[in-house]
TrEMBL record:
Cited CDD domains: cytochrome_P450
Residues that, per the record, bind heme: C469
Cofactor: heme
Domain of life: Eukaryota
Family: Belongs to the cytochrome P450 family.
Membrane-spanning residues: 6-26
Keywords assigned: Heme, Iron, Membrane, Metal-binding, Monooxygenase, Oxidoreductase, Transmembrane, Transmembrane helix
Alphabetized GO MF terms: heme binding; iron ion binding; monooxygenase activity; oxidoreductase activity, acting on paired donors, with incorporation or reduction of molecular oxygen
Keyword Transmembrane: yes
Name the record gives this protein: Cytochrome P450
Length: 524
């Protein structure tokens, strides 16, 4: 018996050691060797760090310099020795990132038949619904049908009908700010965008009608919270959890909720789902996105539509308020840009003093936004230099593929290196300089450094193809309205140290918040 137990123990130990060696050392090295053999088209960090892979650099940067994952991708993209693809090696999950337009173009032709959506990790709000939502599902016929219906309801061609609702939420959160008040802009923008998108999806005043969540705190005690606070706390929790070393080393802990913290996140996720379901069951709302989709897609299960709506909520929240923060930040960092934009607002919006700002805000004429060419270029440049999503969601190679000169094995996880494309020095002149005019065909910056027209895939803040962001039109409109609203209403200051910080940027996983002083409230 004694002997048997010892043998079993030794066999198990050898098994575990073998598993760990394979996972952390053999597999990643094999992957590197595979791509190294294929020549210079696939880049990788010069030295592989056993156990942590490229995550070591990210963690160091995150902790020591206040940098975050997006910076890592940007730094990589700016390296001199550029390759069109690179592998980003994190324990158990190597990801092949595309950053060259020709390769992207080839990849795009293979989506969705041979390359399709694969969630990179299983964490997050996507689990609130019982099934994967819009952003996590494979591109089936049913998915296409659901996506088209949802896009119709978020107003792909006439999103302007949501402007009054949007302004209501902005006025509610920004309206009471006073002259000389110091504000955490990120927080106010976050609340405004979240409450807008939640109302758009589930109905006006949803936040007042929804019940309290029983949120499980880190010490195990339950705190009753409003849905908004619950989701925000959870989002912060999940960001910090995903950077915890144990989750980095063993992503299975997140996938299968094996660590205590992940189990707690899962329980809180379910609680948010319970509150939303409860609300939907008793809601009489008929105009919300959810209600419209339920009416149109009678054969789809209610829980699938709820999951899809949550995809919209998650996809349309952080990305948009972070981009708004970047825009407001850039205006102070680049005063010439602010001057030009104010001139355009004076000429087109307030017609050189003829229309008082408060009157314009009350009767917002969205057609005037279409005339604001500089505003459009400004937002495009903000999304180029500060993309709120530094890379796409995950895709998977469904069979072995050849993309140009690179063989990609079946099962490989693939993403678009959004930030890498947006600062690609072959496509953009002075890629790190903020120049809105680069979107003006008459500007010298409109062309590539070799004086050619830019490739259509050079500009991909929302990515491209059949899985491109379904909220892009809504997002562009929201940003235009939000910026005009903010500039008509406030004068503000951002402290010099923040303006001079070259790493300050606002995007998913960014550790920064935008603080400012409101120096004048120009209208109520
Ligand atoms: C400035 C704002 C936004 C940016 C920069 C942005 C960017 C992106 C990016 C890069 C993706 C990944 C696409 C891919 O994997 O190829 C994405 C997907 C998605 N976005 Fe957005 N987004 C924004 C706003 C919105 C809004 C307002 C909504 C909804 C109302 C939204 C909903 C979604 C959804 C549902 C997906 C998943 C699409 C799919 O897999 O089919 N996004 N977005």
């Amino acid at each position: 018996m004694q002997f048997n137990l010892t043998t079993v123990f030794i066999i198990c130990l050898i098994g575990i050691i073998g598993y760990l060696l394979n996972k952390f050392i053999l597999k990643p090295y094999r992957k590197r060797a595979y791509y190294q053999k294929q020549g210079a088209s696939v880049g990788m960090t010069p030295k592989f760090n056993p156990f942590l892979g490229d995550y070591k650099l990210i963690l160091e940067n995150y902790q020591d310099k206040g940098k975050f994952i997006g910076h890592y991708a940007r730094d990589l993209a700016l390296q001199e020795n550029k390759s069109p693809l690179y592998i980003f090696q994190i324990p158990n999950k190597d990801i092949l990132c595309f950053r060259d337009v020709e390769y992207l173009s080839e990849l795009n032709k293979l989506i969705p038949k041979y390359v399709d959506r694969e969630p990179i990790d299983n964490s997050g709000f996507g689990k609130i619904g019982s099934t994967g939502g819009l952003g996590q599902s494979r591109s089936t016929k049913e998915w296409r049908n659901r996506r088209e219906t949802l896009m119709k309801t978020i107003g792909i061609n006439h999103a302007s009908k949501f402007i009054p609702l949007f302004l209501d939420h902005f006025q509610h959160n920004f309206g009471s700010i006073k002259t000389n008040q110091e504000i955490n802009f990120s927080q106010v923008a976050n609340t405004s965008v979240f409450s807008f998108i939640l109302s758009l999806i589930f109905g006006k005043n949803v936040l007042d009608q929804i019940g309290l969540c029983n949120y499980e705190q880190k010490d195990g005690s339950i705190k009753q919270m409003k849905l908004y606070d619950c989701m925000m706390t959870m989002s912060d929790d999940m960001t910090s959890e995903s950077l915890q070393l144990y989750n980095v080393l063993f992503p299975e802990l997140i996938d299968y909720n094996l660590a205590t913290e992940n189990r707690r996140n899962e329980r809180n996720n379910k609680e948010i789902g319970r509150i939303l379901n409860e609300f939907i069951d008793q809601s009489k709302e008929t105009n919300s996105v959810y209600a419209q989709v339920i009416r149109e897609l009678k054969n789809e299960p209610q829980q699938q539509i709820l999951s899809d709506c949550i995809s919209l909520l998650i996809g349309g929240h952080e990305t948009t308020f972070m981009s708004f923060s970047s825009a407001v930040y850039c205006l102070k960092k680049y005063p010439e840009t602010l001057k030009k934009l104010m001139q355009e607002i004076n000429t087109i919006i307030t017609e050189n003093g003829k229309i008082p700002p408060e009157e314009f805000i009350k009767n917002f004429d969205h057609k005037k936004l279409d005339e604001m060419e500089y505003l459009s270029m400004f937002i495009k440049e903000v999304l180029r230099l500060h993309p709120s999503a530094s890379r796409s969601l995950g895709y998977k190679a469904l069979k072995t593929l050849k993309i140009n000169d690179v063989m990609i094995p079946k099962g490989e996880i693939i993403t678009f290196d959004v930030i890498g494309c947006l600062v690609n020095p072959e496509q953009w002149k002075d890629p790190l300089n903020f120049i809105p005019e680069r979107f003006d065909p008459s500007s010298e910056y409109f062309k590539t450094p070799s004086d050619k027209n830019r490739h259509p895939l050079a500009y991909i803040p929302f990515t491209l193809g059949s899985r491109t962001c379904p909220g892009r039109s809504l997002a562009m409109l929201e940003l235009k309205v939000a910026i005009v609203y903010f500039l008509l209403k406030f004068e503000y200051q951002i402290n010099e140290a923040d303006l001079q910080n070259p790493d300050m940027t606002f995007s998913i996983y960014s550790p920064f918040e935008l603080h400012m002083k409101i120096t004048e409230v120009k209208c109520r």
